[in-house]
Structures are given as C-alpha cells and as structure tokens.
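Here is one chain, start to finish.
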Amino acid sequence: MLAINMLATKSFYRGVGILEQSPNDLIEQFTAWLKQEGKSANTVITYERELKKYQDWLQMNEKNLNEFSRGEVQNYIHFLEAQGRSPVTTDKILGVIRTYSKFLKKPELTTEIDIRTAEKNQEIDCLNALQCGDLLKEVKDDGNSRNTAIVYTLLHTGIRVSELCGLDKSHVDLGAKRISVKAPTGDQRVIPLSEEAAHFLQKYIEEWAVNDALFVSKSQERLTERSIQYILKKFDVNPHKLRHTFCQQLVDKGISIEVVSKLAGHKDINVTKKYAKSRMEQMALEDAIQRTFVKGRI
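Its structure:
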C-alpha cells in the first residue's frame, strides 16, 4: 500500500491532473508524503485531521484543496482567531497548511500570513503623524489615482487587505461617504469615509473602474493581495502597517476602544486594547524623560 502511495505521490509531483484530484486523494497523497519525510505516526494523524478541517472550511467557501489562494489561507487564520483559538494553536495550524503548500510545491501560498501574536512587550509597527503626511504626499505626487485611492482607503478605514481586494463598486456609497465591508468571518460592517478618501475614490472610479470590482489592474482584472503588497512596497509600507496606523491614530485621538474595535472589525476587544496599552507606555516614557531632565536643573 505504501508503495502505491509513493507512486501516486511521484505522479502528483510531475503535475499530472492536479486539478482533477479529489480532496480525499490529495489528503491521502499528502499523508503518504509525510511518511516518506519521516514524520511520526502522531504527526501524520494530526496533520491529516487539521487538513481535513481546512478542506471543510474551504468547501463552505466554494473552494477546495487543489484551488485555494494565499487569501483563503489568511481568511482561514482570521476565522480561527475569531473562534478564540490561541496564537500558539493558530500558528501550529498554519504550520500544517504551510507543510501542505510545500508538498504542492507552492510555498508562496503561506508567505506573509498575519497571525495575532501572544501578548508581548513589543512596539506596534505603525506610522506617526509626520510619516503619514510624508506617505500621502509621496503617493499623490506619484500621480497614479488608483494607488492614491488604495492608500487613502487602507489608511483612513483600517480595512484588511483581503477586505480591500473583495470590494466592488456597489460597496462604495460616495454620496453618504461610506463603504460596506465583508470581514473574513462573513460579518459585514459599514465604515464612514473621510472627505479625502471619498474624494480620491471618486477620482479613481471616474478614471479607472469599468467592471464591478473596485480596485483593478490596467487590464481591468480584480487586484489580488499580492498585487496590493507590490504596489505598497514602492512606498515602503504594507497593508498591516496601514491598518495598525489607523487603529493607533484613533486611540491617540481619544476615540473609545469600543468604537475602534467596531471600525476595525475586531472580534476580540483585547486585540484593540493593545493600541491603548502602546499609547500609555509611550506616554509613560515621555513623562519619565520630561520629569527627570527638567530644563535648568540638569
């Protein structure tokens, strides 16, 4: 039986009929591959169990194990976090999917996946007010209305990159200055648009958008998460940093944690509280310096 599985795995690696493979066949070939890699029996059982759970989730989203993207992986991680899975458990499950992606010879499916980390004393990676101003000036000076609209939308709404890619023109109400966003968990929320975000979205839509998808390429194809990452790399930022910046700026302006949590679509308010903690720690550091090095005394 093992010899048969090894033969099946070899044929799989040659790329024979991957799109025709059933999920069960893929799981069977994956477990055979794990055994060839020297994984213990318990590890194989665990990986098989978690991969079947991932397949069940994919099926609910009309996908399966032979046709999923990095976006589906990220959405599944958000789904697990919304269920209350710990960062450690979520990371282990991602490890299973990462190993499966390696088996598929598609490791890019699990690169740069955002996982909520365990509580640590680490600074949140976000832009300060001066850096935000510099970024927006650079983007506008670049002269691409689509890229300008993308940056303003991410920075002034705090939506996830997967949510940005899923936006259609029908989700944008420029008259009421708001957008309707569908979270990875399936929940929907309505987010107000700033005057500037609404202005640059309208300008972009008038110049670019022809199809239903809001953010598109020059060939009118819906932009992928990878495309957004590539666009933002030019300005030395990423979607996660802009989302963190949105949340941190709201907290710094005194907006309540409950409101920030609702706007960001956080299922767990403790995720939002880390921004308040970061602000309090920064204020404590500033106060310590000001109280110690008083002008005229030291």
